[in-house]
């Protein structure tokens, strides 16, 4: 990645940067911080992942998806550089990966757009992530939970170490809700790096009305405010904060869709994310039954996800991911795991049929539909439902 950036003229050094790492909440905090920065008068870009439908969704300029022509030009430049890197790489290094190429193209695009600051979401972990070549002035660690354990470690402290490794010397680390051991670990890493540590509040304040649903999004927004204030070195004007809070949107995070019964999409794909989702959807349902349409990748903690969601669900329709990049849990196996957790469930492998069945069950009980379990469920579910964002 360093060789690739060098060939491209170090585009990531042509704007100031904020690095966002964590197990859950990264995309939300990235989008929220970028929106707050833009509203503060700074030309702002963002790099988020994964995308739902198009690779260009990963690059935001002024809060909007990059224009197709600008994205294509950036990808072409990055691809040309990648060919050169691949020719000169040792065999053990392997070729430039898809995510490295996408990240390099994002840096090129952000530089070409002349953004003053970019908020960059890490992909996996931090220490060895392709995004860990930015000279970030502020690092945000949103949360730490057990996910990607085959790569990052078997404990929360091991995973946190991978994420905290992106912190630059003499900068600022802003953290969200952490368990005591990880919070202490963050404090010690900040001290070693000569970095200032900021612990974000749990809520942005009662006067802030967030246009997004869920208590977890209030925590994320409070963290985003702390990140931007750490970057600018001054408090944000309350009116600006209130306006951004009302307007900011995060696709795929308790995303409300039209229809009767109401349908909500969420990308929760690990136990901690599922627990936050369960808390939030219970508030939204307000006593109405919740019928889930679930699909999960095979390398995820299926039992942990189901255990977190089961208490707030009436039943589940278990399905499969039509175009996932990795193997998904078979619908029948997912159904059996739900039943083992005490949840009524059925298996409908075809996603379109599964969504229809979930809507039938919710309509019969006066309930709502929750579609969850994977990032790779969002785009095909939207398409199959034919519904628009609420």
Name the features.
390 residues, alpha/beta, 14 strands, 6-stranded mixed beta sheet
Summary?
The protein has 390 residues and is α/β, with parallel strands linked by helices. It is built from 14 helices and 14 strands.
Describe this structure in words.
It is globular, with a radius of gyration of 21 Å. The chain starts with a helix and ends in a 5-residue tail after the last helix. A hairpin with a 2-residue loop joins strand 3 and strand 4. The protein is an alpha/beta fold. The protein is built from 14 helices and 14 strands. Helix 2 packs across helix 8 and helix 3 packs across helix 4.
- Cross-sheet strand order for the largest sheet: 4-3-2-5-1-6-7-8
SS summary, helix count: 14
Distance between the ends: 39 Å
Elements, N to C (H/E): HEHEEEHHEEHHEHEHHEEHEHEHEHEH
Q: Could you give the count of β-strands?
A: 14
Question: Which radius of gyration do the C-alpha atoms yield?
Answer: 21 Å
Helix percentage: 40-55%
Strand content: 5-15%
- Indicate the low-confidence ranges by residue numbers: none
Shape: globular
Mean pLDDT across residues: 93
Structural class: alpha/beta
Largest sheet: 8 strands, mixed
SSE inventory with pairings:
Blueprint: H1 2-7, E1 16-21, H2 26-39, E2 44-47, E3 59-61, E4 64-65, H3 68-88, H4 98-112, E5 117-121, E6 138-141, H5 149-152, H6 156-164, E7 172-175, H7 180-193, E8 196-199, H8 215-232, H9 238-247, E9 255-257, E10 263-266, H10 271-285, E11 290-294, H11 302-309, E12 315-318, H12 331-340, E13 345-347, H13 351-365, E14 368-372, H14 378-385
Parallel strand pairs: 1-5, 1-6, 2-5, 6-7, 7-8, 10-14, 11-12, 11-14, 12-13
Antiparallel strand pairs: 2-3, 3-4, 9-10
